Amino acid sequence: MRELIKEVVELTVPIEEVGIEDDLMNLGMNSINSIKVIVAIEGEFGFEFDDEDLNFENFRNIRKLVSYIESRMQK
To answer: pTM (2 decimals)?
Structure first.
């Protein structure tokens, strides 16, 4: 997940220093970057985000992103 984020978002700290619970919004993630991450995840994992899941809370940290991806992969 860190590599995917690193490819599409320039955070205020190196991605290697970002903990899985760190708030990405406080580290430079914004709405445009969130869209880039969504597109990258959809391309990497072969699914589309459900419209109701397109909110910042699902992108707040790496743990939430991974959890969402895992739940989608189990469907």
So the answer is: 0.87
